[in-house]
Amino acid sequence: MRPTVHDIAAKAGVSLATVDRVLNNRPGVRSVTRDKVERAIATLGYVRDVAAANLAKRRNYPFVFILPAGDNSFMRGLEGEVRAAMARSASERTQITILPVPAFDAQALVQALSEAHQRRPAGVAVVAVDAPEVAEAVKQLRSDGIAVVTLVSDLPGSGRDHFAGVDNIAAGRTAGTLMGRFTGGRAGPIAVLAGSMLVRDHRDRLEGFSAVMAEEFPAHRLLPVIEGQDDPVLVEKLVHALIEREPDLAGIYSLGAGNRGLVAALEKTGKSKTNCTIAHELTPHSRAALRSGTIDAVLNQDAGHEVRSAIRVLKAKADGLAVIEAQERIRIDIFLKDNLPIEQA
Amino acid sequence: MRPTVHDIAAKAGVSLATVDRVLNNRPGVRSVTRDKVERAIATLGYVRDVAAANLAKRRNYPFVFILPAGDNSFMRGLEGEVRAAMARSASERTQITILPVPAFDAQALVQALSEAHQRRPAGVAVVAVDAPEVAEAVKQLRSDGIAVVTLVSDLPGSGRDHFAGVDNIAAGRTAGTLMGRFTGGRAGPIAVLAGSMLVRDHRDRLEGFSAVMAEEFPAHRLLPVIEGQDDPVLVEKLVHALIEREPDLAGIYSLGAGNRGLVAALEKTGKSKTNCTIAHELTPHSRAALRSGTIDAVLNQDAGHEVRSAIRVLKAKADGLAVIEAQERIRIDIFLKDNLPIEQA
DNA sequence: ACATTTTTGATTTACGTACATCAAAAATTC
DNA sequence: GAATTTTTGATGTACGTAAATCAAAAATGT
Q1: CB of B240 within 8 A of CB of B265?
Q2: Which residues 249-308 on chain A approach chain B with CB closer than 8 angstroms?
């Protein structure tokens, strides 16, 4: 049987109350006595029964999730995962509030962070816009003992507790290698389509992609980045113009959202098969395009994993516990038409 | 506040004892009363506090993991993950026993299953060898109310409760597409290196790979399958002979283990760069080969995920609860040199 | 209407921890 | 060595559920 507080008390020759004082480091224990208790804990290999402790404490975790609004499929999927976590809140002792905020808008994000602050939650998860004033707002939350996890897009220099998202430089590099090898011997320029250079994840992907193309596939010319604001309508227009301008285009790397517009433009111009297209995030649209061959590969981050990881980390940080970073690493999924997961309800 | 059993009792106008009888379907409740209680449960949205229930029940889960012995790196990694789960057993209320068994040996596996049976565990996880007598042994476990999950390699027709592993046909197809596209315009035959056709996962991968190569890359000739028994020494010898026999070899798909031998042969014959090599499972060896360029892509299944998923499923099945299949799906990871995860301790 | 069976209520103990209170004992100060 | 402060013990209640016991009440059969 697992040792309990009673066993420690017996072993150390002290009362239950003293064991309790040591375990929850309450004051009023001489250091000699404390040592005795700690030795008993060590020799018995006692580990606190977290379930029983949480029951006794009536512990719960109020969290705020700040997510971009808009009709970006990936972000809506992310929100869906947060809502799924809310449905599990009873058994997980969490109380999650979602705060929507306009995309790519640092000012609005700062305001949302301050609103979150007022709710005095145990932790905040935020899809960050990379701006100094946002970092400042995050610092204020942390100085009040509120745990902060960045989600999907990171905010270095803000002192956030953790980043729940993929290594976007590695993702860009991976896209680069796939692009180089899939286009094989073909010449022709490569286009890069981004959402906005205001978010860290897009900048990082571009950096990784450009680096690999320059290092390993110097024969391919990289065209200037097109910013489509993750807006399907704008993206379609821009890609249409691109295809007319560059008739011998070999590939397109779409590192942001708005893939609906990209696919529409490719299919309307009949370029869907001749181009090598690599995109990000598995959504109903990108899935269909992958299946039909319009998109050749999709790099994905599993939104469900990210949300669950963010919650685990927020809980741990709120309790002052360590996080096993390796276990919380979010991997980059590569999907070809052959390894698409079964569609979910 | 979450409703408790007391709230249900009050709402339904019955005693706590009756609520308990309904919740744990004990006998001695008239159906009218049972209905009253169930309506109260539904209207209050009561969900049992699993932590408190497990505490009161002193619930624990004795499980047996049957794993192949030998120096197969992937299997040793898998065992490491099981041991990591054992270290967490205190907080997870599990008691895990590992039963080693010779690889690819149906008779030994049957015996191990019977030994596991005698221990009367709540569940068994097993890396299956695909043979009728093994399926029969699994059926016996299940008929005694012991949950059975197959791990890594499945056993269809055995009535196992769940398979914790990847879709190996899809994995083979993915390897096929990568092989076809990476070898690009090059002609030359493609070799397939397997461990043993006695295990389902290897057979499935071969099936998927062959199908894609035939459908989409008919120009490439597929050589007869080489079986290396996942033994590095044997594999090196076989691959060496292969390279001498087929000087214009375009690619090798290694769908089993024993990658050390494969890499050694490729590097000694100076074929490491000219060949497109695709292998399975990320181990220290395959990682190094990926980094150096000897291997072009590694398809991986995350052993840690598989073990954790198996445990979750075994727990759920032991409690007669439903499993969210979509959540327990193990994905196929594709690693290129660009998206290798950071090495762990 | 009686005996018999079935159903229900009331109550208690337990799981392992948290937390509070009050008294007793030990250590410290002057 | 008395007064004071600090440390420790003893004890009880709570968290939400499980499980058992025994008595009381209700339903059933004849």
Answers
A1: yes
A2: 302, 304
